[in-house]
Amino acid sequence: MSTTQTPMLATRLRSLQALGIFCGFAAGAWLGGAEAPIKLVNPDISPITVSLIMVCGVFLARWSVPAFIRGTSHVRNDVRQAPHLIVWAVLAGCMWAVANTLTIYAIRNVGLSIAFPLWNTNSLLGIFWGFLLFNELHYAGWKRWLGVIGGAICMFAGATLLAIASSHEAAPGKAALGIFAALGAGILWGTMYIPYRKAYLTGMNPLSFITFFTVGEVVTMTLLALGYRGATPLWHELTSARDVLFWLMLGGFVWVLGDLFQQYATKYVGISRGIPLSNTNQLWGLLWGVLVFHELRGASQSVYVQVAGGSILMALGAVAIALSSATAREHSSWQDAADREGARYGVEGEYVRAGMEGREYESGSTRRTLIDWILILGTTALFAPLAAIAKFPHMDIGLGWAIALSVAMLSLLATCGIALWRTTRFR
Amino acid sequence: MITPNQNESRKLFRAIATDIHFWIPLCVLVAGLVLLDKLR
Question: What are the chain B neighbours of A228 within 8 Å (beta carbons)?
Fold first, then answer.
């Protein structure tokens, strides 16, 4: 155990662990719900362009949501304390953009049924990096090891069944390329959690991390789109897609809310537990697909059996992980890793400790500045006209279910948001 | 003459350049870009 830090109070540790697990489930709901607006978009638009427009929505959300929640002055404070983390945030953003583009090629070449489980291995890789680099699952005991590894494998099996049930046909002759693309995306996403964990062990606020993360995301995605499509064809495609810009950017915005919960889950329960819990997004995506967009209408009984089996397996895996939260002894080895980071980069010990305990480091002003209001109003001003010109496609949609799922997501947003505020003030 | 600010920047740069946590994601990113280029 670290000699420079006293262990966190057991009650505080328990409440932060419960909060992190709650955030993991909320992340699953919102990351899965982000697929809904995208389903309203004409499939004729190129995947790279779809990805670029979504990332524009993501960029706006990643700056305006932190400005709305806590104001951007906290971002400046975090950067002053740990400037080195900007490098990791931008690096993680670049990785996300490349992984996301790889998934497009994977789905195109081998179909969702093969691609999804392959890139879902990211959670297993996340567990590996968490153990190897950040002392996660050290002194955890065999029951918690079994809970986390068994739960992740259970979720992987469930994800495979769900993906097979909701699959599209693969393009023949390109299977190897598609498998490489899916595995590549899984490795990129699994490794992307190294910067996440590094930032949160050091005490950085997730709201600060994502503002720099998105710079890497938007720059990489713009370069990829320009390189793959060319400036003029890309511009023509963007202008001809103006009717659906709102839906795609809304998908990006919803995705950011899910990702924000994922970041808090990573911060409070680590990557070995937070990431598998966030992967329940596949269940929510399936609920939207089946109930709202009638994707399995007319399917055979075996498909429904696969869906039920896959869903139960995923739910069981998530429950196993949720019940395997870190003990005080394991948490003390996280503190050792945090000490190491603090010493290496000369970060103040009290800042690192406050971040791990989810409390305020400095009692500075929490008032929003003019810049915050410009960010909030500017984002609204961009979304409002796009919503006004957006067209709702002629689709058979289960409106009742759409409302029910939206209410469920909003309830999770409100309850988890309140829990984060009460427990950590969004630290 | 090296100012205190320059000294801090150098220390930070050295700390990042010798951190395995930086090189693992960077190598994976480069490999991802190479793979993406092959897939085009």
Answer: 40
